Amino acid sequence: MTEKVILHSVHLDRPWTLENYRAGGGYEALHKVLTEKTRPIDIINQVKLSALRGRGGAGFPTGLKWSFMPRSFPGDKYVVCNSDEGEPGTFKDRDILRYNPHQVIEGMAIAAYTLGAKVGYNYIHGEIWDVYERFEEALEEARRAGFLGQQICGTDFNLEIFAHQGYGAYICGEEMALIESLEGKKGQPRLKPPFPAGQGVWGCPTTVNNVESISVSPTIVRRGASWFSGLGREGNVGTKIFGISGHVNNPCIVEEEMGIPLKELLDRHAGGVRGGWDNLLAVIPGGSSVRCLPRDSCQNLLMDFDSLSALKSGLGTAAVIDMDQSTDIIRAIARLSYFYKHES
To answer: Which of 41, 72, 246, 305 has its CA 20 to 30 A from that of 270?
Structure first.
């Protein structure tokens, strides 16, 4: 198993505390970039060199997205963490927030420093109240320790981060609908352009990143771009959090290298398919909005963006939903279709 990037502290008692996060190197990356006055362009280039692709589903290069922010803009700028996880089968982000909220806070702080923002918002799905409370507790810990607020780490960098309770609607996971909801309006997507980097929250430049994408950045800054890009395979590097559910013996969340074969992922971490591999009917590899793949397509399948795209499916959120031969596939797809109809 590869070394963990995000879930490295889950084996500890109360891993969500500031004390345990700092014991594993937490906030070292933020302290380094602030006290050494690292140039924002150097951080962006480091994230670009790491080849990190967004972990929210689209797989867009994170460093490139950060470069779109107009730092010379004289007014307010915002960093937004998209924690509106509402897709059936997807449950990775809430566990990051539940067990490692400080990594999200540090990632947002690094992004804010890099992009010239003084305010950040974490938009949290409205139906996971316990996670919202856990994140609020972590924010208060970070403020007391001097990692949020005024003159962070004794420098001239100021930042405040707020948790925002969403409406619990799936559509608010789309970044423009999220921004509308954050502003207190009905969560419906805006027409593009303009894009958020030019006109986002309250008409100001805004960068929106998924929880997992944000959480990776402290490790990249601390350990270097080449370390991260050395994991996985070309074009699909780093680690990925996989949420495995459905007809497996041990449903779980696990962090593994990108490109791990699906069968190995299931056998090693989920106890294999219920009734054995030959009992597998189909797999939804990346959350319920991506194409379902029959067993024949899964035998040698690599779990990464490009391999799944080649099969006209997608890695999406890496929410692996397994269905065995007992599944009525038409009924299952009809049920998912009803969800999307209702949420629209």
So the answer is: 305
d(CA 116, CA 96) in angstroms, rounded, equals 25
Pairwise CA distance, residues 152 & 110, whole Å: 12
- What tens digit of pLDDT does each residue of 191-236 get? 889 999 999 999 999 999 999 999 999 999 999 999 999 999 999 9
**Structure tokens of 119?**
């305010």
Cis, bond preceding 194 (omega within 30 deg of 0)? yes
Q: Note the pTM of the prediction, 2 decimals.
A: 0.94
The conformation of residue 291, written as its DSSP 8-state character, comes to: P
Q: Which pair of tokens denotes residue 70? A: 């107009």
Element holding 281 (H helix, E strand)? strand 280-284
d(CA 265, CA 320): 10
8 A C-beta contact, residue 85 and residue 95: no
Q: Which two tokens stand for residue 12?
A: 């500890």
Question: 80, 208 in Cβ contact below 8 A?
Answer: yes
Strand order in the sheet with 293-294: 252-257, 239-246, 319-324, 280-284, 293-294
Q: Is 344 exposed, middle or buried (0-12, 13-18, 19+ CB in 10 A)?
A: exposed
Beta strand pairing call for 232-233 and 236-237: antiparallel
100 vs 77: CA distance, rounded Å: 26
Q: Is the dihedral of CA 94, 17, 3, 113 positive or negative?
A: positive
Contact 90, 210 (CB under 8 A): no
Smallest CA-to-CA distance from 316 within 223, 221, 232, 210 is with 210
Number of CB atoms found within 10 A of residue 17's CB: 17
The 10 Å Cβ neighbour count of residue 342 is: 9
